[in-house]
Amino acid sequence: MTSKIATVKDGGEDGKVVKKQRLTLKERSRLGSSGVVILVGKRLDSKYLIHESILTKTSLFFRSAMKKEWKEGEEKIVRFNDVSSETFDLYQCWLYTNAVYTSERDPSGTSFYSFLINAYLFGDRILDHPFKDIMMDTFSQKMEENSKIPVSLTYSIYYGTAPSSPLRRIMVDKCTYSDFSESLDRQTADDLPKDFLMGLVRSLSKKTWGRLPGIPPWDSNSNCYYHSHGTEFPCYKTLDWGEPTSDCRLVNSSM
Ligand SMILES: [Zn+2]
């Protein structure tokens, strides 16, 4: 049986632009029928049901967790009692739509930045490079738009990340190349992690003595400068989300 054909106009003048929506069975995404329950919240009272093929698409943690030898893989249930439903809502939407949905109510407020950082830290924990990288780009973009650096959140960042984390790096870089004195006025030395202060002093000293370029690193380097995919994984910007990955096919074919 071949797929049904549907062709729709896609907003072009006089219907000149027509979006192709007829696809072959070979081109379809294979979601499969296996689902995984994700429980989040302090009491694990927020429940999500995600296709296993979607859940294991980009997260190395979920790929491992779904192996039969793991309890989670046997039960098809994964629990996160220290992750909020707000964070997982964002991740779930991203998994299915490849889009990040954020509230614009207070896009320059600390709680908004905290929301982005928590999402990034969750991506770090589940080893999902594409999700981390899109959250990093959102975080960076918001700081640029608002001309505001959430210095008060450096403890959350430094507490939740490894020394080599791009999230630590971007905070030091943004503070090196921007006037963040206003944000700093509201902090005491005890409010800021020592590693952050040391990194910042080192960076500012290099900048003062001309050992850093005049152009900020986010402008002078590739778009992947703060991404964590490295050379091992493709950038999320180049992923073809219409097609399941080879690993996705393997998961589906075993069902
Ligand atoms: Zn990249």
Automatic annotation (TrEMBL):
Gene3D superfamilies: Potassium Channel Kv1.1, Chain A
InterPro entries associated with the record: BTB/POZ_dom, SKP1/BTB/POZ_sf
PROSITE patterns cross-referenced by the UniProt entry: BTB
Superkingdom of origin: Eukaryota
Native source organism of the sequence: Patellaria atrata CBS 101060
Xref: PANTHER family: BTB DOMAIN-CONTAINING PROTEIN, BTB DOMAIN-CONTAINING PROTEIN-RELATED
Identification of the protein by name: BTB domain-containing protein
Residues covered by the BTB domain: 34-104
